[in-house]
Amino acid sequence: MSPDFADATEADVPDAAGAGAASSTHGAAATDDRAGLREVNPRIPLLAGPRAMLRSLWTHRSLASNFIGRDIRLKYRDSALGYVWSLLEPLMLSAVYYFLYVVLAGVPNKRHPLWIILGVITWQFFAKALNGTLTCLTKNETMIKQVYFPRELFALTTVGSQLMMAMLSLLVAIPLMLYFGIAPSLWLLMVPAALVIVALLALGSGLALACLNVVNRDVEHLMRFVTRVGVFVSPVLWTVEMAPKSKTVMLHYIMYNPMTVPITMVRDGIAGHAPALGVVPMLVSISVAILAFLFGAMIFKRYEGEVVKKL
User: Fold this and answer.
1) 202 and 129 in contact (C-beta within 8 Å)?
2) Residues 115 and 166 in one domain
3) Is the pTM of this model over 0.90?
């Protein structure tokens, strides 16, 4: 073998090895691309959280629908009355409040029992949706460890199932509307609008606290207490009209309660008249609910990938 030929052969060996390594790397990359491999839980920028959440919820909307149906079925499984409990529960609770506030306290408004029922149903929807959302990670710890899918589905499932139960519970208002001679009108459209506001408030607040609750479980106990106390400081057992007109400062602080407007909207919609609080408070309430959802989505998508490691 000639020296020139030997040198040429030895010089070609590294090039061949390098070409093989490059080909192998390109082949692995192509394989990864074909397999569709991606990071399971990427780090999402804070401001991109709402868009990422809405995109994943839309992509998995059929799964969310199945989860909502499952939660509703499980709630009344092995129950003789089944869905009737969605009507009986607010009725029985409202009967207790009616005895305390109308019979004993002597509230003169004959329609007050209806306002109590509507307030109780709306507040229970908010309280259950909020507490269920902020515990969506801790209560689904086993499933989170077994399989991955967007964890915000747990929160949406909770709020969605509670929304369905609230809508079923509101059917109890129909016989009372007939009894009091209240005719349905276009103002009834305020009822679903108010429920959407409540859903956004509960979902946004719960998402903002869900990650913190994984780190410190005291959050869920504190919020459970807050929602119980909120029954008395919100217009659930009373109406805004019952507040003394001379107490303008009191009315001012009442409006800071984010649940004041939606509860009043539900009552006004059932009563069939224009919003008692005016259009401006309604627009403010809608804006607050949207901002609450956006803030909760940003916090949840930013930190849920890190805190689930602590489950």
Assistant:
1) yes
2) yes
3) no
